[in-house]
Amino acid sequence: TLEPRYSLAWRNIGLCQLQQQNFEPAQAALKSCLEINAGDAPAWLGLANTWKRQDKPEKAIAYLQRAIEVRPDYAVAHHNLGVCLRLTGQPGQAIEHYQTALRLGLKRPELYQNLGNALVDMGEFEPAVEAYREAIARAPDSPELKQLLTAAEEKKQRRVEKSLEQDCLDPDIDNSWSGLPDPEFAQLLRHARGLHAAGHLEEAEQLYRRLEQTGAERETVLRSLMELYLAARRPEAAVEVLTALAREVPDTLYYFGRLAVLLEGLG
Q1: CA angle 108, 110, 112 (to 5 degrees)
Q2: pTM above 0.90, yes or no
Q3: SS3 letters for 5-20?
Q4: Is 2 exposed, middle or buried (0-12, 13-18, 19+ CB in 10 A)?
């Protein structure tokens, strides 16, 4: 009342209304704050949460992206954006934002749990197990986390067993293909994916790189390499591969988008 353009007061009113689940008044107050100060990242985050808490994550995404635009190092916004992306069926992009939040110093158990969930969605069970273990280290009494870890370990083991049954995985791969002239591309690719799925990332990387040199199915091979580097938490290597994909694959913005997110996370 005393100062109608006191943006911080509008923001705090909005956050108090949000805490009481009065969503429309919260949105009105937060929008008043942003009309005065469009650079208020917590207000953008609060506005996103008015939709997220109504189970409408698709409406929250744009506001979270705006919060990150005005404050790129806003770890909580990256975490929340990851949650909303996963809820809308985009676990790959969610993982990138979770990893950015971790690089920015956010080490909450729920962040590691959400990262693990998204990795499981992507079938990346080895790094999911690591994420759940990090979460348990910070919340050792959580029965939910222990259940998630057990489930991920079982899925990882079933993946290994299935790969073995399909003869896609040979633990003695080191030089097993070196003497074969012109090996079948599809067989080698299947072999590399079996190694990748089983968590043998170094061996899989070597085989993907060999396949890349053949020039066949280049987008498929590079995309597999990209996912491997993301799973291995090697964002710089993923940037190198994504740069090649963005330049070489015509008529797509997908790789440019993923590249931009990674570069932003790396500063």
Answers
A1: 75
A2: no
A3: CCHHHHHHHHHHHHHC
A4: exposed
Strand, coil or helix: 47: helix
Using DSSP's 3-state secondary structure scheme, residue 251 falls into coil
Residue with tokens 């489930």, as numbered in its chain: 151
Q: Are 30 and 12 in contact (CB under 8 A)?
A: no
- Cα separations in angstroms, 218 against 46, 189, 194, 222, 241: 43, 11, 19, 6, 11
**DSSP symbol at 192:** H
Give the mean pLDDT per block of 10 residues along the chain (267 residues): 95 97 97 97 97 95 96 96 93 93 94 94 88 94 92 79 51 42 69 81 88 84 88 87 86 78 84
Measured between alpha carbons, how far is 188 from 211 in angstroms, rounded to an integer?
8
